[in-house]
Each structure stands twice: as structure tokens, then as C-alpha cells.
Amino acid sequence: MVSHGSISLPIPSPSQDDALIVPERWTAYGEAFEFHKVESNEELTPPPPASLLEEFRHCIGKQASILRIRLAEDRLPKGHVYWETTVAISQGHTSWK
Fold first, then answer.
1. Which pTM was predicted?
2. Which terminus of the chain faces fewer neighbouring Cβ atoms within 10 Å, N or C?
3. 69-to-55, 73, 82 alpha-carbon distances in Å
4. What is the pLDDT of residue 66?
5. Distance CA 30, CA 25 (A)
6. Burial class for 60, CB neighbours closer than 10 Å (0-12, 13-18, 19+)
């Protein structure tokens, strides 16, 4: 899936030619699986570092096959976690301490 603004569309996996389509969600093993189209190179975001993925897998244990890492839309207050779900909780996502 590739989101652009409030619209998400299924497309084949982005190619190297799609420089403004960047990952925004990764598996616990670092594989990008959802993408976002940015307007300019200034919005490009690097993938999560290997050390973050390793710590994430350590924290979630056996759930590594189903839990994912997502780029937060805004900076979160220190000590908060962004949680996105399909369960209807306050527009489908929230953050908590």
C-alpha cells in the first residue's frame, strides 16, 4: 500500500525509480511493507537502525511475527508509545505512557 495524504492505494512494490515513495512501516526484521509518497527529498526518512529492530524483537519476543514498527506522524512526548490498531479506539490510534 502507498499512502498520499489521506488516500491509500495498492500498487506493486515501489521500484528504485520511485524516489519519493518511502517506507513508513517495517516488520520486526526490517522488511518494509507499507509506503508513503512524500512531496520532496526533505521529507525522506531513513529506515530504523538495526539496533532498534533488535531491541524491538527482544521486547516483543514471540510476537515478532505479527507486531510491526511504524514511523510516528508527529514527535511523541518522552516516554509515550504510538499504538495503531484496527480496534475502534479514538480514531484507530492513540499514544500512552
1. 0.63
2. C
3. 12, 12, 10
4. 81
5. 9
6. middle
Instruction: Encode burial over 81-91: b for 16+ CB neighbours within 10 A, e otherwise.
Output: eeebeeeeeee
C-alpha cell belonging to residue 46: 531513513
On the CB side of 38, how many CA atoms lie within 13 Å of its CA? 13
List, for residues 37-81, the tens digit of each pLDDT value. 888 777 777 788 999 899 989 988 888 888 888 877 677 788 877
Please report where in the chains the cell 495498492 appears, as a residue. Answer: 10
CB count within 10 Å of CB 35 equals 20
Cell of 76: 511523541
Q: What is the spatial distance between Cα 72 and Cα 93, in angstroms, rounded to a whole number? A: 11
Residue type, 83: W
